[in-house]
Design a protein that fits this description.
Elements (H helix, E strand, L loop, with lengths): L1 H28 L5 H31 L15 E5 L2 E9 L4 E2 L12 H13 L6 H9 L12 H4 L27 H7 L3 E2 L12 E2 L5 H5 L7 H11 L27 E2 L4 E10 L2 E11 L7 E8 L1
Parallel strand pairs: 3-4, 5-6
Antiparallel strand pairs: 1-2, 2-7, 7-8, 8-9
Helix pairs in contact: 1-2
């Protein structure tokens, strides 16, 4: 009951904040007479409402995550938050980035593969019917190594493109940056997007364990060579009703007891990085804010915004 009252309070505060933001903007509308002015005001209202939705999502994550030692798709943040009244509509959806394969963990700063994450990447690429050679190009883009991998490319390759540019030789900062990397076509990016991330739980961390509670089917299957489709299905079925409170709990799934020790270094049961998609509509105008945040604690400033765009 205590958690339910707390959650109700959080939702009430979120809704109140949104209504206050809307009311402040609606006052301006009284002084605007032209159709263009009305559209502009509606756009501003929708923008503020969408931004407020991100703030609400952050508060919800903070409230939920400090209550437990794990994060799962059974948590309240994993359910869409909808607010719909005569003044506007808001839809907030949240997904955990920590349940995906972190591309920056595949190769270190010197371009030498991290064997464990490289193996996961190769298995994932094969399951997606993509070439494992993409790992070579990724490692050369991120790493400071002078010589390219067999299927990779360094600045000498990129300098011959039109327009020319050099290899970054540093960590990926956004998923969209992959479009600059050799062989990462739009079709490749479309296939990869649901399963990979560039945001670690800890800044500049050399490793990025994957949350087994939120990882997609394809990522779970790629964790180890011995994980069959049947084992993957068992893991997914198990976590539908029983979250893994610790990474070792995956051994409770029939058949995973002999595999779990091998994946202990690349898995975890709780994440800290989340993608929030907040879509707001006022009259005929819609604005969407997409943000990636790292949750540090429960305080008002205990989070870091890693990515933000409005469209």
């Amino acid at each position: 009951m205590k958690d339910e009252r707390g959650f109700a309070l959080v939702i009430t505060l979120i809704i109140t904040a949104l209504l206050v933001a809307l009311t402040a903007e609606f006052v301006e509308e009284v002084y605007v007479d032209t159709s263009l002015g009305h559209n502009f005001v509606a756009g501003q209202q929708a923008s503020i409402l969408a931004s407020s939705g991100v703030d609400g999502g952050i508060r919800l994550l903070q409230f939920n995550l400090v209550q437990q030692s794990y994060s799962s798709l059974l948590d309240r943040w994993a359910q869409p938050l909808k607010i719909d009244d005569e003044q506007g509509k808001l839809l907030v959806r949240i997904e955990e980035e920590s349940g995906k394969l972190n591309l920056n963990a595949i190769a270190g700063t010197n371009g030498v593969f991290n064997d464990a994450y490289h193996a996961i990447a190769v298995r994932l690429l094969k399951k997606l019917e993509l070439s494992p050679d993409l790992c070579d190009a990724l490692a050369d883009w991120v790493g400071t190594n002078e010589g390219p991998h067999p299927a990779g490319a360094k600045s000498s390759y990129y300098n011959n493109l039109k327009p020319p540019y050099g290899a970054k030789n540093a960590r990926l900062e956004t998923f969209e940056e992959l479009a600059l990397v050799k062989d990462f076509s739009s079709k490749v990016l479309e296939k990869l997007r649901p399963f990979v991330t560039v945001y670690p739980d800890q800044p500049n961390a050399p490793t990025a364990p994957i949350n087994i509670n939120t990882a997609p089917r394809e990522v779970i299957a790629a964790l180890d060579d011995k994980i069959t489709d049947e084992l993957t299905a068992r893991v997914l079925e198990y976590r539908k009703t029983t979250p893994f409170k610790d990474k070792s709990d995956i051994a409770k799934v029939a058949g995973m007891d002999t595999i779990s020790p091998g994946i202990s270094l690349t898995t975890k049961a709780k994440g800290a990085v989340y993608r929030i998609l907040s879509e707001a509509s006022v009259k005929e105008t819609t604005r969407t804010v997409e943000a990636v945040v790292r949750i540090l604690g429960s305080g008002p400033k205990d989070y870091t915004v890693l990515y933000w765009r409005e469209f």
